[in-house]
Design brief:
The complex is a heterodimer of chains A (111) and B (116). Chain A has 111 residues and is an all-beta fold. Chain A is built from no helices and eleven strands. Chain A has strands spanning 4-6, 9-13, 18-24, 29-37, 43-50, 55-58, 61-66, 71-76, 85-93, 99-101, 105-110. In chain A, the strands form two sheets. In chain A, strands 2, 4, 5, 9, 10 and 11 form a six-stranded mixed sheet that branches. In chain A, strands 1-3-8-7-6 form a five-stranded antiparallel sheet, with no helix packed on it. In chain A, strand 6 (55-58) and strand 7 form a beta hairpin. The termini of chain A are far apart. With 116 residues, chain B is mainly β. Chain B is built from no helices and ten strands. Chain B has strands at residues 5-7, 10-13, 19-24, 31-37, 44-50, 65-69, 75-79, 88-95, 106-107, 111-115. In chain B, strands 2, 4, 5, 8, 9 and 10 form a six-stranded mixed sheet that branches. In chain B, strands 1-3-7-6 form a four-stranded antiparallel sheet, with no helix packed on it. In chain B, strand 4 (31-37) and strand 5 (44-50) form a beta hairpin. Classes of the chains: A mainly beta (111), B mainly beta (116). The interface between A and B is medium-sized, with 24 and 25 residues.
Chain lengths: 111, 116
């Protein structure tokens, strides 16, 4: 079946790295995404990775994909208070417009 | 437009009333999605429009919910005889609908519906 799972909460200290994890079940996924939702706002694309890649880096963000284990992670270096948000993982299958969404991980920053 | 625009941003209504939520997608985006996000929950798919094709209505929770997309652009989500459990944020997203590409969705800010 189709399922994307994430932990509901992650708490980190300001300045530390945050690692948000996601697992999915569909091995035919072609693209995997990370979206960010700040309070009272819609979702904003952070980054996405094609399934034939195992890593993608963009400034403070590093995405790691382990296709064998169907595991995706988002690492945020030097976490700041502005990173407080809910982070959603999503997957897309080949030749399908639909995205399958995780429930979101709320990132809490401790001073 | 520059982004996906949704209106109203907030709507408070009484149980039993009908409401209409509007979404104006990015110009040129042929795909349009409606999602529902209840407090503290993830995204619940409602309906998907792709060009002139028949919409995918498989996520609509009951026959009180309907949506249309006129002229391949603006979409309206209508909820009839609202119930308290309909209270949620309704999110609209649009994309270039790349079935084989990355199909990046751009979201609006949402319409928060409160049913008293």
């Amino acid at each position: 079946g189709e399922d994307v799972e994430q932990s509901l909460f992650l708490s980190v200290r300001e300045g530390d790295s945050s690692v948000i994890n996601c697992t999915y079940t569909d091995s035919s996924s072609t693209y995997l995404y990370w979206y960010k939702q700040e309070p009272g706002a819609g979702l904003q694309l952070l980054t996405y990775i094609f399934s034939n890649m195992d890593m993608k880096q963009d400034q403070r963000l590093t995405v790691l994909l382990n296709k064998k284990d169907k595991h995706l992670s988002l690492r945020i270096a030097d976490t700041q208070t502005g990173d407080s948000a809910i982070y959603f993982c999503a997957e897309k299958k080949h030749s399908n417009y639909q995205l399958i969404w995780g429930a979101g991980t709320k990132l809490i920053i401790k001073p | 437009g520059a982004g996906v625009s949704q209106s109203p941003s907030n709507k408070v209504t009484e149980k039993g009333k009908d409401v209409e939520l509007r979404c104006d997608p990015i110009s040129g985006h042929t795909a349009l999605y409606w999602y529902r996000q209840s407090l503290g929950q993830g995204l619940e798919f409602l309906i998907y429009f792709q060009g002139n094709s028949a919409p995918d209505k498989s996520g609509l929770p009951s026959d009180r919910f309907s949506a249309e997309r006129t002229g391949g652009s603006v979409s309206t989500l209508t909820i009839q005889r609202t119930q308290q459990e309909d209270s949620a944020v309704y999110l609209c997203a649009s994309s270039l609908s790349q079935a084989t590409g990355a199909n990046v969705l751009t979201f609006g800010a949402g319409s928060r519906l409160t049913v008293l």
